[in-house]
Amino acid sequence: MTQTPRYAGWIEVITGSMFSGKSEELIRRLRRAQIARQRVAIFKPQIDDRFNSDDIVSHNQQRIPSIPVATANDITELAADADVIGVDEAQFFEPEIVPVIQNLADGGKRVVVAGLDKDFRGLPFGAMPLLMIHAEYVTKTLAICMQCGEPANFTQRLTQDAEQIVVGEMDKYEARCRRCFEPPPGPSPVNEGGDA
Asked: Domains in the chain and their CATH numbers?
């Protein structure tokens, strides 16, 4: 049985590959908090303007209004009056997102964070691994492999871009299972057993 803390803040992390329903689950949890008349503040990085510059939008077009922020530190002041804080695409924030989220939870707030756990190489993405180890609850979502239909845990980049952060949709990415995932040349925990 999962217990919800009554007198303390906590961190919930929703993670997985692209197209696995992370934003959809984040939106669901935040809407329930709004229905419960809790004060909710919702944030996303300014870099993520794929669907809409202000809303968090899932791949199935569910949406919820959010505040785009340039840095993680912007969240602290903007979330001061909130009971529940939502953060989407946390992997795009600088490492300072970790102490920001921890301080909010330490201050008695429920913080729900969604983001990719692995980049297109299959390696840990941004601050997500640290957020997971500090979280009270971690939900791992799986997509469906767009090659074979098996459960997918990897994000396959379809372009030759080498940068870690390339914002895109189905024009640039596919969900892939372990067998169908084809990492680019270089270290990969899937093909070479490399350290993450």
From this structure: 10-141 (3.40.50.300)
